[in-house]
Amino acid sequence: MKIWKSPPSTAAILRYLLAPPIIGLFITIFSYPSGFRSLGTMMYVLFYSYCIGIPSIALITYAERKLDRHYPWLKSPFKKLFLTVVMEIIIVLLIVMIVQIAFLIINKNDFNQLFKQFSAGFVWAISITVFGIAVANGFLFFKNWKQSAINEEILKREKLAIEYEALRNQVNPHFLFNSLTALTTLVHQDADKAEAFIRKFSDVYRYILENRDQEIVSLGNELILIRNMAYLYHYRHGDNLRIKLDIDPADNKYILPMALQMLLENALKHNIISEVKPLTVKIFEDKDFVVVWNNLQLKNNVPDSNNVGLGNIRLRYSYLSEKPVIIDKTDRYFQVKIPILKQT
Questions:
Q1: What is the pTM of this model?
Q2: 50-53: which pairs have CB atoms within 8 A and are 24 or more residues apart?
């Protein structure tokens, strides 16, 4: 059994040196106050206290370290408190009994007198020890439980930060794939339009690269992105796609980067866009929300990935706002309302 994994700290050494004589002092005060008149008696009490205190502290420290592995404070606080108190009382009782018997045997010439003194001292030793263990563990219970809760919260925040980063990085490949698909079509149709598309696409993607590491972006800058995207989609769909913006890009209005782009692309992906059935997408402001609305004319045989994109936006917003993302769907239209964020 290895009591110390490393050399004991200064605090541990002081605990071994100071705790036993202090406890012995209190026991003497209550059980044998006349002992203070004799230096020999006090030295005897000091030696007796160290014989009990040092092995008790060492064994309790070792036992608590083992107990921590199976019953952490956060997961099993009350069970940990109960087992710790019971374990420490048993350890102290055994050591006190062993030392008590040893001292009685060594001092057999004056057995009766020593037995009376030690009996009274034994009762006080156990009483003070039990009280001290209960108080100390009550304090440690709240201290360690609080610290464990803090540590778990730190780990939870770190995990959320990692998840948020992963979610944010999902956006860029999706947009890149759709844009390159549109560009491939334009190359075969009109070289001049393809060249203009490339220039506009570079502006859009430059914006994405510059803002991908931001938690939030200004609503005004995000609207510039949407206007550029509308310009790109116009080459592909012409008047069959109508994107209408009605938002005041005032200062101190922010949203998540690429949120509007994802909602716009979802509308285009899942709805028919044709001369017979033109698609209208409206982006406007409603109180503290930005609304992305489109008339509903769903395509057939389109994989139902809309929930993935919406789930992405919902989860990203849950890290930054108490306001929920609101989804409203009827037979005629589909709309998503995302909260406008304020930068403090």
A1: 0.50
A2: 50/20, 50/21, 51/99, 51/102, 51/103, 52/20, 52/92, 52/95, 52/96, 52/99, 52/125, 53/16, 53/19, 53/20, 53/21, 53/23, 53/24
For residue 10 the two structure tokens come to 């200064």
**Across all residues in the chain, what is the average pLDDT?**
75
Q: Which residue has the tokens 């696409």?
A: 201
pLDDT at 310: 81
Task: Tokens for 194, please give them.
Answer: 């393809």
Per DSSP bridges, beta strands 241-246 and 279-286 are: parallel
Q: d(Cα 123, Cα 116) in Å, to the nearest integer?
A: 11
More confident of the two residues 115 and 86: 86
Q: Yes or no: say if 101 and 114 are a contact pair by the CB < 8 Å rule.
A: no
Picking from 161, 261, 166, 247, the residue whose alpha carbon sits closest to that of residue 208 is 261
Contact indicator for 35, 42 with CB cutoff of 8 Å: yes
> What pLDDT is stored for residue 162 in this prediction?
47
Write the secondary structure of 222-259 as one string of H (helix), E (strand) and C (coil): HHHHHHHHHHHHHHHHHHHEEEEEECCCCCCCEECCCH
The tokens for 26 are 């209190």
User: Which residues in the chain belong to E strands, given as ranges?
Assistant: 217-218, 241-246, 254-255, 279-286, 289-295, 326-329, 333-339
Q: Distance between CA 16 and CA 54 in Å, rounded?
A: 6
